[in-house]
Amino acid sequence: MSRFLNRYNHASPTSPAGGVSMTDPQYLADCDINTILRKYAITEDFVSAFQRIDAARDQFASLPSELRARFGHDVKAYFEFVLNPENAEECKRLGLLVPTTVEPSAEELLQQIADNTRTTKGTVETGKAVAKIWDDWYRDENLQDSIIQSSDDLGDGNPNGIDWNVLRKRGKRHDYFTSALPWTQKGQAIELPLGTSAPVTYNATNPHDSYLTGKQAGLWQKGNNTDADRAQACYLGDDDSAKRIRPDLQEPLWLNADLSRATAATINSLRMAFQLQRLLETDARCGTRLCEIIRGHFKTICPDARLQRSEYLGGSSTPIGFLPVAQTAENGDTPQGNLVAN
């Protein structure tokens, strides 16, 4: 027990008495921490022993310095003395109370374990748990939509009719190519606020030709469009006079916008546009899950438990080796060296 206590308190282990090797079966049965835990875990003896240890440790801390000096100020020596039933009378004489406990039954012990275990409000079905893990860790949110719309989807029932039995494909691991973004920002690009209106003035220069008499008048009679080099005639009334738009004018140059009198954008509106564009670009690169937003914008890594994110508790992997078996001789239609098995 003394060596076990020393090991339990993370002190350096003592050497086995009598020159016994620490790999000796008897030493392992009596002193090895792993052996003792396997032997006494979740048993009445194990709980009772630890209750006595805790009580003895508390008593040693409250002893007068004279009594602690008797044990060389060594809690290990004190444990060995008070926990030995043969020293019960001496403990009474010195005023040391021998720790006594009421050992619980197996049912009471299991109840204590249940009382001290944090319970959840419910359990998540296997399909929902796998979907939550995929949604948190293996989904490329730039290319794949989330299947969990709200926390109600993980509760009782299936309000959105999600098929939880579908095994979805994970996104590819990021490399030089797969990490390329499909767009520069996540969402609509921000436009620069350059104003909304400007006064327009009319230029008095004549932009059209008038055909009222002569040969041109015959070509541009109402309903007649025989000149392919001319633009469509525009008739202003019921008479045969027409006004032709000049074909060399590509824009209405006779209309001018006075930009000096246009509504201008403020410095703050320009700054807002730049910052919004930067925010959307960061969202596209870092992601828009809550933990990704906090890390991308504020450079802070939050524990998964605080953000209701599925957390990896542990696991293992086993490598599998494949050795191809080559055919050593030609056989029918298969040549020598053909890979026939693994």
TrEMBL record:
Pfam families: Chlamy_scaf (PF09675), Phage_F (PF02305). GO terms for molecular function: structural molecule activity. Belongs to the microviridae F protein family. It comes from Cylicocyclus nassatus (Nematode worm). This is Uncharacterized protein. InterPro entries: Capsid/spike_ssDNA_virus, Chlamydia_phage_Vp3, Microviridae_protein_F, Microviridae_protein_F_sf. It comes from the Eukaryota.
